[in-house]
């Protein structure tokens, strides 16, 4: 009931705001298309979150000595992931832009009584090549083995902005930066993997990948920027890469597996500035997952024994789930991989 009412309200609000925005008709139509697609995909995901409620759980086993890297991690879903990793007694390397926020977050966890685990905080802006290189160098010099990497930092929608390196910001933050990070950390990730204890790379992707496509001829969406289109592209790109990487690791018999995770539709600041949060904030408050609930499938993807040897999969509410057909296309995976490598001037991936 709530869902249907919510959906109708969103559609009406959307139509009104788009028409009032006085943009060219072509843009209006594309924006309307993506708004409706997001509402459809989002509503379906909210319903799935509800139906799969009982599946959404993870153990927090003791994993003393394991080293995990997380990007972002100072707020939102990432913050809850850090908290659970601490409970598992891991060493967590947090790469974030807001060091102060991360420090006080850890202090708060300690005050709340979480005594286990270690947290090390580093400066990282995942949208900037220089910053990624510095971060990788710093942690590689201190930690020879890295067991888990959670590619969590992400942005959604927002206006067209290009980073200092000349890439559209969602593509750069959600996909490209993490591609480079994994390239740089791969030797250490491989070094940590063992036969029945694989290292794991976990990408926080999204159900939005279902409506994504890769626009090779205009990867930055410079010609026509529709925020929703760019977000979906970045999330599909992550998924393609995750699948590609698992296959590569399998072929070279490295003990590394990769997963993409849809955390659920989660009420975080990611939705700030969206129509939904501006006009009908009661909908996310009522229907969306909490950040803690969103963190559960991510932690599950890292620590679950059930997933050993089952990389290259997409996790939704702690179950292996179907992705869209596009994400499975090996041809597209390969094309995107080569394209991205060239974009970043990487000669040999992971070396
Ligand atoms: N919420 C959902 O419903 C949902 C659904 C599907 C997927 N996801 C994905 O889940 C992930 C986490 O989202 P969230 O909901 O937790 O969002 P959030 O509350 O907005 O948190 C985003 C995090 O990413 C960090 N970040 C953004 N840009 C960065 C940059 N250039 N360098 C370093 N860190 C950066 C932010 O750090 P600052 O504090 O420095 O900004 C923050 O820690 C994202 O990848 C998102 O796409 C979310
Ligand atoms: C996750 O996606 C990034 C690009 O966003 C990619 O570089 C990284 O290797 C991916 N890792 C896995 C295992 O999904
Ligand atoms: C991912 O790799 C692991 C082992 O490296 C393999 O067992 C698994 O089947 C792979 N996943 C897919 C979808 O091929
Ligand atoms: C919808 C949902 O997220 N359900 C459960 C997920 O897991 C947490 C923690 O175990 C529960 O509190 C939620 O009810």
From TrEMBL:
<keyword id="KW-0560">Oxidoreductase</keyword>
<protein>
    <submittedName>
        <fullName>Uncharacterized protein</fullName>
    </submittedName>
</protein>
<dbReference type="InterPro" id="IPR002347">
    <property type="entry name" value="SDR_fam"/>
</dbReference>
<dbReference type="Pfam" id="PF00106">
    <property type="entry name" value="adh_short"/>
</dbReference>
<dbReference type="GO" id="GO:0016491">
    <property type="term" value="F:oxidoreductase activity"/>
</dbReference>
<dbReference type="InterPro" id="IPR036291">
    <property type="entry name" value="NAD(P)-bd_dom_sf"/>
</dbReference>
């Amino acid at each position: 009931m709530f869902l249907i009412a919510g959906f109708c309200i969103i559609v009406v609000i959307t139509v009104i705001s788009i028409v009032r925005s006085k943009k060219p008709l072509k843009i209006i139509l594309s924006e309307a298309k993506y708004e409706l697609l997001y509402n459809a995909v989002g509503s379906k995901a909210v319903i799935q979150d509800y139906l799969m409620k009982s599946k959404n759980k993870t153990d927090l086993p003791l994993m003393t000595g394991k080293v995990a890297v997380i990007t972002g991690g100072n707020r939102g879903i990432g913050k809850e992931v850090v908290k659970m990793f601490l409970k598992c007694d891991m060493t967590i390397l947090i790469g974030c832009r807001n060091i102060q926020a991360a420090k006080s977050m850890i202090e708060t966890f300690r005050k709340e009584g979480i005594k286990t685990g270690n947290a090390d905080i580093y400066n990282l802006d995942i949208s900037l090549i220089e910053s990624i290189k510095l971060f990788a160098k710093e942690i590689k010099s201190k930690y020879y083995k890295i067991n888990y990497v959670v590619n969590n930092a992400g942005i959604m929608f927002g206006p067209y902005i290009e980073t200092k390196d000349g890439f559209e910001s969602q593509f750069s933050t959600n996909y490209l930066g993490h591609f480079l990070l994994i390239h740089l950390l791969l030797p250490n990730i491989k070094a940590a993997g063992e036969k029945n204890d694989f290292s794991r790379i976990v990408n926080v992707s999204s159900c939005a990948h279902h409506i994504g496509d890769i626009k090779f001829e205009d990867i930055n969406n410079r010609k026509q920027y529709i925020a929703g289109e760019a977000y979906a592209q970045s999330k599909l790109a992550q998924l393609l890469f995750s699948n590609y990487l698992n296959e590569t690791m399998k072929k070279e018999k490295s003990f590394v597996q990769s997963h993409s995770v849809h955390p659920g539709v989660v009420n975080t600041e990611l939705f700030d500035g969206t129509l939904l949060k501006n006009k009908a904030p009661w909908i996310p408050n009522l229907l969306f997952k909490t950040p803690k609930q969103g963190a559960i499938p991510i932690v599950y993807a890292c620590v679950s024994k059930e997933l050993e040897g089952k990389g290259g999969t997409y996790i939704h509410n702690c179950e292996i789930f179907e992705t869209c057909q596009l994400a499975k296309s090996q041809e597209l995976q390969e094309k995107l991989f080569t394209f991205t490598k060239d974009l970043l001037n990487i000669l040999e991936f992971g070396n």
